[in-house]
Specification:
The complex is a heterodimer of chains A (478) and B (207). In chain A, 32% of the residues lie in helices and 16% in strands. Chain A is an alpha/beta fold. The model of chain B has no long low-confidence stretch (mean pLDDT 94). Chain B folds into 2 domains: 166 residues, Aconitase, domain 4; 36 residues, no CATH class. The chains are: A alpha/beta (478), B alpha/beta (207). Chains A and B meet through helix 2, helix 3, helix 5, strand 8 and helix 10 of A and helix 4, helix 6, helix 7, helix 8 and helix 9 of B. The structure holds iron/sulfur cluster. Iron/sulfur cluster (SF4) binds next to loops of chain A.
Chain lengths: 478, 207
């Protein structure tokens, strides 16, 4: 009898062939997402070597990292930064020359790569998916093997439709129990990173399982898989189920008719065998979780909203202690201070972690007629033009605008601050994105990562606050 | 790609854990469409103030480390974003080898693909090498024999044989893979039969 397999083993076996005796494999890539930052040098490399794109139909190009979040209907003319414009033009021209489909700036289907792939139904269970972006792990929510690659690998995939790689370790993280009010997929992710550290998943593919994962919507599953890379793992995976199929059904690129039935029948086989062995297993009881947020400059520097900023003197490891001291200094926080009540100046609701319709609904529910606190600038950046439209059809834009939020057009925006949206030195932000590194959202900017409901609560109170203590907490957590 | 065989020179100590690629190359330098010209971008926010004036004190601006060819760093080096600009900037500065107790996966691959050698050693060895680097000792790395020597001590490091061969030969990976066109076609054909509903396949068959 064949040995029991994990979900990762199954997808790997379907796509890999041995390359050499030393254990390297060729991994066939089903779907390749392209964006402007990590691709120009790859296309230039192909041209220099006189090579062509093997399967243009397996790629999709989107414009997200660099674009302004206003005036996108003007297309490239919306971009005032000449250097950014050259890069965006390069992607447009490279895609056109190679016969790769692109959703242009201003096309409502354009948006953040990791929002658009699933939204279009291009991301499907059992696929291998890569993109020159570390948060490609997001697509694992569909039971696809998806991970980020560098530009040389982008070039390799364009030319060969494969990657040369080796198999990762199997790791399983089970989220058990029922999440209390105010605890979301974002908190699951932060809890895991706090537990295993930003290097804890290195060399592994993590399968997320357990009743709390089964209970998550596709949006929540994407949030969880998205931050897998912050735990250092190669990819995150969730076995597809009825929730997955319901999400995909009737999406533009989803299989139709008889194809749909054949696809679902195959997708149902995509789960770890009962007796499959994992190299490492971690269990987290979500019933014991509270709303979490980061206090420092690494996504592993996490505390509960009712907790205190840690004291570096309590950390034994000298390098970690030094990192904590540096983080406290950068963040302008004192050891032992309660994190709740810390005043903020900015709020960012967006990024491939939390910019989907459900995230915007959760944030809007907390606002509930209140206004952004004085001195706070708050911004909502939907993940795609279609998310924006959907939110507008539900009246969420009016909720945000009436509360004093800015309602922007889609893109990565202040997640990495390559476009004009960024923090000023010393500004403190409640952000729904995924990285709180020094300078990530703007030089000297201080980022606290949290869920959309927590960020919205911070916006209307003007400081970091426990969403559970907030009048609308029940609605926000629903 | 330039082959990596032997390397000898100064090593800069950077005893910081979890150095992320946002620190190695901040976002404002990602708009380039070139692979070169990034030396000035390396660790920019740690080296220059908001007005772009050099801030004294950062190790890579302090002689002799401005000529460093090796970087010895804390655990989990290169975590975060997949930007290949990180190894490009290190190489452009002159650094061809980074030593740490561990590296983030994508960064590691990006290094290999650019002929930059990441060496993984145990905690005690990295601590000793940090101290040697702080004294300005000369490091010598011999990839064929997998050794890193300095101050009269020779240490052996582990590296996947396939990766070592790739670095030693400075191979054109794409050319090598393309030579296996039959293998690629075989998996491709198998997958197209197994999952004929995939959107890209449908589209290509139609047109
Ligand atoms: S939203 Fe942020 S993390 Fe996501 S792809 Fe864009 S820049 Fe990367």
């Amino acid at each position: 009898m064949a040995a029991a397999k994990t979900l990762y083993d199954k997808i790997w076996a379907a796509h890999a062939a041995p390359f050499d005796a030393a254990g390297e494999s060729l991994l066939y890539i089903d779907f390749h997402l392209l964006h402007e930052i990590s691709t120009p040098q790859a296309f230039a490399g192909l041209r220099a070597a006189g090579r062509t794109v093997r399967r243009p139909g397996r790629a999709l190009a989107l414009f997200d990292h660099n674009i302004p979040t206003e005036r996108q209907a003007d297309g490239l003319d919306a971009i005032s930064d000449p250097v950014a414009r050259i890069q965006l033009e390069a992607l447009r021209n490279n895609a056109a020359a190679a016969g790769i489909e692109a959703f242009q700036i201003g096309d409502p289907r354009n948006g953040i790569v990791h929002v658009v792939g699933p939204e279009q139904g291009r991301t499907q269970p059992g696929m291998t998916i890569v993109c020159g972006d570390s948060h490609t792990s997001t697509h694992g929510a569909f039971g696809a093997l998806a991970h980020g690659i560098g530009t040389s690998e982008v070039e390799h995939v364009l030319a060969t439709q494969t990657l040369r790689t080796r198999k990762s370790r199997n790791m399983r993280v089970r989220f058990e129990g029922e999440a209390p009010a105010g605890v979301t997929a974002k908190d699951f992710a932060l809890a895991l990173i706090a537990k295993i550290g930003t290097g804890g998943g290195t060399g592994a593919v993590i399968e997320y399982a357990g009743e709390a994962v089964r209970a998550l919507s596709m949006e929540g599953r994407m949030t969880l898989c998205n931050m897998t890379i912050e735990a250092g793992a190669r990819a995150g995976l969730i076995a597809p189920d009825e929730t997955t199929f319901a999400y995909l059904k009737d999406r533009p690129a989803a299989p139709k008719g008889g194809d749909w039935d054949a696809a679902v029948a195959y997708w149902r086989t995509l789960c770890s065998d009962d007796d499959a062995v994992f190299d490492q297993e971690i269990v987290i009881d979500v019933a014991a979780l509270k709303p979490l947020l980061t206090w420092g400059t690494s996504p592993e520097q996490v505390i509960a909203i009712d907790g205190q900023v840690p004291d570096p003197r309590d950390i034994a490891d000298p390098v970690r202690r030094a990192s904590a001291e540096r983080a406290l200094d950068y963040m302008g926080l004192e050891p032992g201070q309660p994190i709740a009540g810390t005043p903020i100046q900015r709020v960012f609701i967006g990024s491939c972690t939390n910019s989907r319709i459900e995230d915007l609904r959760a944030a809007a529910a907390v606002i509930d007629g209140r206004h952004v606190a004085e001195g706070v600038n708050a911004m909502v950046v939907p993940g795609s033009g279609l998310v924006k439209r959907q939110a507008e059809s539900e009246g969420l834009d009016r909720v945000f605008l009436q509360a004093g939020f800015e309602w922007r057009e889609p893109g990565c925006s202040m997640c990495l601050g390559m476009n004009p949206d960024r923090l000023a030195p010393g500004e403190r932000s409640a952000s729904t994105s995924n990285r709180n590194f020094e300078g990530r959202q703007g030089r000297g900017g201080r980022t606290h990562l949290m869920s959309p409901a927590m960020a919205a609560a911070a916006a209307v109170t003007g400081h970091l606050v426990d969403v559970r203590a907030h009048a609308s907490a029940e609605g926000a957590a629903a | 790609m330039t082959p990596f065989t032997r390397l000898s020179g100064i090593a800069a100590p950077l005893p910081v854990a979890n150095v992320d690629t946002d620190q190695i190359v901040p976002k404002q330098f990602l708009k380039t469409i070139e692979r070169t010209g990034l030396a000035g971008a390396l660790f920019y926010d740690w080296r220059f103030d908001e007005a772009g004036q050099p801030m004294p004190g950062f190790v890579l601006d302090t002689p002799p480390y401005d000529k460093a060819v090796v970087l010895v760093a804390g655990d989990n080096f290169g975590c975060g974003s997949s930007r290949e600009h990180a190894p490009w900037a290190l190489l452009d500065f002159g650094i061809r080898c980074v030593v740490s107790t561990s590296f983030a996966d994508i960064f590691y691959n990006n290094c290999i693909n650019n002929g930059l050698l990441p060496i993984t050693l145990g905690e005690a060895d990295v601590a000793a090498l940090l101290a040697d680097a702080a004294q300005g000792l000369v490091f010598t790395i011999d990839l064929q024999n997998r050794t890193i020597s300095c101050g009269g001590v020779v240490r052996t490091f582990e590296i996947e044989p396939a990766i070592r061969d790739k670095l030693l030969a400075g191979l054109d990976m794409i050319g090598e893979t393309l030579a296996r066109a039959e293998d690629i076609a075989a998996i491709e054909g198998k997958l197209e039969r197994a999952m004929p509903w995939q959107p890209h396949i449908k589209r290509e068959v139609v047109c």
